[in-house]
Write a structure and sequence with these properties.
By secondary structure, the chain is an alpha/beta fold. The chain folds into 2 domains: 127 residues, P-loop containing nucleotide triphosphate hydrolases (Rossmann fold); 90 residues, 3-Layer(aba) Sandwich (Rossmann fold). The chain has 9 helices and 8 strands. The strands form 2 sheets. Strands 2-6-1-7-8 form a 5-stranded parallel beta sheet, with helices on both faces. A 3-stranded antiparallel beta sheet has the order 3-4-5, covered by helices on one side. The chain starts with a strand and ends with a helix.
């Protein structure tokens, strides 16, 4: 089985790009961020104190996450409930960034992610796929963009939803999240030594997809 690992900071477009690349290649797209968000959703809705390691371990033991593909789209089930519609809120995203640094949370999902890569040809995106989850992946990409551009993309998404976001706050949150992800003790966000850097700050989606497909073709031929 072949694996393409796409790592990078929040808002770099990893999920959008990974889905497109997987579709082009006929691979399975594995959104690890959605898995962590499902864990975070459980923590938020059950008022789990993630700084209490005992409580966190007990919570992780009660969580079962399953991935299914329905009409070509990934669906995430948390203890039998499809929670996909609830995973993209700011509250869940911020909790995911914090809780994903915790060892019990990472351990709970690591085996599931590796098992999927053993069973299918996958495109997997996250923070530590190339460095930790799939260190032997045939293709590794580090996808990034400037904090300003990532904030601009998020700002436009929220405006399209009819919200009135604060651009400066969005960018500040992104910078804070980058710092948290890059400096956490367990599996920090970093570029794998053999990962190809793709900066999408000045690139459109199609250009990024073509770039990664070209890299994948060279690496897997």
């Amino acid at each position: 089985m072949a694996a393409i690992a796409i790592d990078g900071p929040a808002g770099a477009g990893k999920s959008t790009i990974a889905k497109r690349v997987a579709n082009e290649l006929g691979y399975i797209y594995v959104d690890t961020g959605a898995m962590y968000r499902a864990m975070a959703y459980y923590m938020v809705t059950n008022n789990i104190d993630i700084e209490d390691n005992n409580a966190l371990e007990q919570a992780c033991a009660r969580i079962k996450i399953e991935i299914s593909y329905e009409n070509g789209a990934q669906q995430v089930y948390l203890n039998g409930e499809n929670v996909t519609p609830y995973l993209r809120t700011e509250e869940t995203g911020n909790m995911a960034s914090k809780s994903s640094a915790k060892a019990p949370v990472r351990a709970a999902l690591l085996d599931l992610q590796r098992d999927m890569a053993q069973e299918y040809n996958v495109v997997m995106d996250g923070r530590d796929i190339g460095t930790n989850v799939l260190p032997k992946a045939e293709v590794k990409i580090y996808l990034t963009a400037s904090s300003h551009e990532r904030a601009n993309r998020r700002y436009k998404e929220l405006v399209e939803k009819g919200e009135k976001p604060d651009f400066d706050k969005i960018e500040a949150d992104i910078i804070e999240r980058d710092n948290r992800d890059m400096n956490r003790t367990i599996a920090p966000l970093k570029r794998a030594e053999d990962a190809v850097l793709v900066d999408s700050s000045e690139m459109g989606i199609e250009e990024v997809v073509k770039t990664i497909l070209s890299i994948a073709e060279q690496k897997t031929v």
